[in-house]
Design brief:
This protein has helices spanning 14-26, 32-35, 41-46, 80-90, 111-124, 141-148, 166-169, 175-188, 206-218, 245-256, 275-280, and strands spanning 30-31, 51-54, 96-100, 130-133, 154-156, 193-200, 223-228, 262-265. By secondary structure, the protein is of the alpha/beta class.
């Protein structure tokens, strides 16, 4: 299946791209932009934005849609939060997004490391908003509390796909567990913005998409992103279909009518794409 024209991206500013990559390498830092082969990497790096990937680059799960390698993760790097905070300052960022690989090998799923990273960033960069894109922590309320008590600006957890496709593309995850995590986050810290994201193009129906969107609204989700799934390689789940920009606009209109604070829907939209703009809108 050939890539449609609306999914082709412009070449990035190479000087800014090189500067961003240099800062990340000096800090021994990972980004999900690189690990997940995001099509927006060039644009975001050129704008000096990135989604930092903490706790290594190896995931304990192997979802069939994701390019992040699965396997046995490395030991946690206790110096990582301080290095990341320093990189945020050096890059003069004014909005930060932090995510992680899933760490089912850790008793708290890495929640304390998330909290330490938020605190380290705020120590050097006082009032900067920090958005965290968290794993499901295997449904642990205690782990979620650890993260929310560090008071990020946005708690993000991606539902990713519709209920019917979970057993096929989200191994180790559970649709209702993810919804419950988002519901609890809103209850624990009502002032926090709750965010989630969906991919389309995996074989779902439009009615299934709307059911997932309604489910997210019902648990208190404030911000929603919807984008086209792109297979990272021939070994991953194949693309069932490409949605047109007009179809994304129609989905956005329907979702917005439910009362979300912000819905961003488009072929190249990803969970952290233009995250600052979503937060500030």
């Amino acid at each position: 299946m050939s890539l449609p024209s609306w999914l082709k991206v412009k070449a990035p500013n190479m000087d800014k791209l090189a500067e961003m990559e240099s800062t990340l390498r000096k800090g021994l830092l990972n980004t999900v932009c690189e690990s997940a082969l995001c099509p927006n990497l060039g644009e975001c790096f050129s704008r000096k934005t990135a989604t930092f990937l903490i706790m290594g680059n190896t995931c304990t799960r192997s979802c069939s849609f994701c390019a992040v390698p699965g396997g046995q993760p490395e030991k946690l790097d206790e110096e990582e939060p301080a290095r990341l905070a320093e990189a945020v300052r050096n890059l003069d960022l004014d909005y930060v997004v932090i995510t992680s690989v899933t760490r089912d090998d850790l008793p708290d799923g890495g929640a304390e490391h998330f909290a330490a990273t938020i605190k380290a960033i705020r120590h050097l960069n006082k009032n900067i908003p920090v958005e965290v894109l968290i794993p499901d922590f295997q449904g642990s309320k205690e782990a979620l509390l650890t993260v929310t008590e560090a008071v990020p600006a946005v708690i993000n957890h991606n539902l990713e796909t519709v209920l019917r496709l979970y057993s096929k593309v989200r191994l180790g995850a559970d649709y209702y567990r993810s919804l419950e995590l988002l519901r609890l986050a809103k209850i624990i810290k009502p002032q926090l913005l709750i965010k989630s994201g969906l991919m389309v193009g995996l074989g779902e129906t439009k009615s299934e998409i709307m059911k997932a969107i309604i489910d997210l609204h019902l648990v208190g989700c404030d911000l929603l992103t919807i984008g086209q799934y792109l297979a990272p390689s021939s070994e991953h789940e194949p693309v069932a279909r490409y949605y047109t920009p007009e179809e994304f606009a129609a989905i956005q209109k329907k979702a917005s009518s439910l009362g979300f604070k912000k819905v961003i829907s488009g072929p190249l939209v990803r969970s952290s794409y233009h995250a600052k703009e979503a937060y500030c809108s």
